[in-house]
Design goal:
The protein is an all-alpha fold and about 500 residues long. It has three domains: about 70 residues, no CATH class; about 270 residues, MetI-like fold (Orthogonal Bundle); about 120 residues. The chain is built from 19 helices and no strands. It is extended, with a radius of gyration of 34 Å.
Length: about 500
């Protein structure tokens, strides 16, 4: 047998080791492939490092290394008293933190603000987690029940009549008007040439008025019976519960399917009754705290959240109105959007606070904070309308045509097919508007509302904490708060965007 090792085609020595492959992962790989892979990137890396060196390092030194952490007044933060270079004056933040959080809200009542924040977190966090069930109930509690509870918690006061006395009064007014109209026609029929016809119409209207009387009688009897043994508010509350429950029962299909809505309606009113009793709203409620005493982070969150929540339905309605085929609705939407987009927010706030009361009747007043909220909602709604209109324009016409071919109405096509896709397309634009609104709440300080920045500037007037580093420390602290909220909104929007677009990824 031939020895293959003696063949000239077989290598006799060991192959030398090849050099290790260039590392493209980790920190070294990042530097080699991204930071120093070309002359341009080398220059940019050096400039970025210098920028960080001259900005981040001094900031960290000011906020932590040279900072003063303990002290009772400004003397602890003065360089000549401390004996070294003084950075951030954190004792000032500790002393003014209640003012930055609550403004001038009475100290004894600040538990109400804390409870409101806690309820908001308890309702908001489960709604933001996609896998948790009962999203409909959670949304209803957050967007409907929570604002009412928060209003009575923050402002205080009780309820008188619970708003149902107007319902019974309206029914009584309709009853009286119908019967009066029927009697007038009967009297007119005696001397008119078409008397028989007027007599028939008058008799019919009188019968309708009598039926309304019989319809109102059980509600009036129930209200009077409960009021005779308890507070007047509970009689009106019972009438409200009965009327709303019957309306829900009728709107959901009556005997055929409406009975399914009876239990949720009854449970809802039982929950409202429990809240009224716990908060003593039937006996005057909590002490009233005027909104002029609100301030700090409380006002910032109230204004921003109320503006975000109320501007969305306004924007959706205007976006659909601008695309409407009805000329009157389309022209109104266009005029509204162009008007509010052409006016600065500061002008809107000034007009809503100082000019609007001049156009109202003398005995009609609107709270200053409510006026600012209305102005912000109307202003932001115009911008949201254009964002949403861009999403609507991105939806192919075939989507609506396919829905029409399946027999869906315009409302179902818009709410179930077109609008969800449009909102998914404009999530970045909507979130950008939300973040901008959250930061623009600082403008309410021009109308005597002390938000977070307004409370910070007000704290500078305290001579006990007047130091060279006080202002820098305060603005750095509030800047961190704004960054935390804005960054959290941005990150969550990216999460929602990736989740909604998961089906379109390859």
């Amino acid at each position: 047998m031939t020895d293959i090792t003696a063949s000239p085609y077989v290598r006799q020595d060991i192959v030398a080791e090849r050099p290790a492959p260039v590392k493209t992962t980790g920190f070294v790989g990042l530097m080699r492939s991204r930071l120093f892979n070309s002359p341009t990137n080398i220059l940019l890396t050096i400039l970025g490092a210098l920028l960080l060196w001259y900005t981040v390092i001094p900031s960290i030194t000011f906020l932590f290394v040279d900072a003063v952490w303990t002290g009772k007044d400004r003397t602890a933060c003065l360089p000549e008293k401390a004996g070294f270079v003084v950075g951030a004056c954190w004792p000032y933040i500790q002393a003014k933190l209640p003012q930055l959080m609550y403004g001038f809200y009475p100290e004894a009542e600040r538990w109400r603000v804390n409870l409101t924040f806690l309820l908001a977190a308890v309702l908001l966090v489960p709604m933001l987690i996609p896998r948790l069930p009962a999203k409909g109930l959670n949304s209803g509690l957050f967007f409907v029940a929570f604002p009412v509870v928060a209003f009575f918690l923050l402002r205080g006061g009780g309820i008188t009549g619970f708003g149902v006395s107007w319902t019974a009064g309206l029914l009584q007014l309709v009853d009286d008007s119908v019967i009066s109209a029927g009697q007038a026609l009967l009297n007119l029929s005696k001397s008119s040439a078409i008397g028989p016809l007027l007599w028939i119409i008058g008799q019919f209207i009188t019968v309708v008025g009598t039926a309304i009387q019989w319809l109102i009688f059980p509600l009036t009897w129930l209200r009077d019976m409960i009021q005779s043994s308890s507070q007047p508010v509970w009689g009106d509350f019972a009438v409200t519960a009965v009327i709303v429950t019957l309306l829900v029962f009728w709107l959901r299909g009556g005997l055929r399917t409406g009975w399914r809505a009876l239990v949720p309606s009854i449970v809802t009113f039982i929950g409202i009754a429990i809240v009224i009793k716990l908060m003593a709203l039937d006996k005057g409620g909590l002490p009233i705290v005027d909104t002029r005493l609100w301030g700090g982070l409380l006002v910032t969150l109230v204004v921003s959240v109320a503006g975000i929540v109320t501007s969305m339905p306004i924007g959706i309605a205007l976006a659909l109105g601008r695309r409407s085929t009805i000329p009157l609705i389309r022209l109104f939407s266009i005029a509204y959007i162009e008007f509010w987009r052409g006016v600065p927010l500061i002008t809107v706030l000034f007009f809503a606070t100082y000019m609007l009361p001049l156009f109202l009747p003398g005995n009609f007043t609107v709270d200053g904070l409510v006026r600012a909220l209305i102005g912000i909602a109307l202003f932001t709604g115009a911008y949201q309308a254009e964002n949403i209109r861009g999403g609507l324009a991105a939806i192919p016409r075939g989507q609506g045509e396919a829905a029409s071919a399946l027999g869906l109405s315009w409302w179902k096509t818009t709410s179930l097919i077109v609008l969800p896709q449009a909102l998914r397309h404009v999530i970045p634009n909507l979130v950008n508007s939300f973040i901008s609104l959250f930061k623009d709440t600082s403008l309410v300080s021009i109308v005597a509302l002390f938000d977070l920045l307004g409370s910070l500037r007000a704290s500078f007037a305290d001579p006990v904490w007047t130091t060279p580093s006080t202002a820098f420390t305060g603005f750095a602290f509030t800047g961190v708060i704004y960054f935390i909220f804005c960054f959290g909104i941005s990150r969550y929007s990216l999460f929602v965007e990736r989740r909604l677009n998961a089906h379109s990824r390859n």
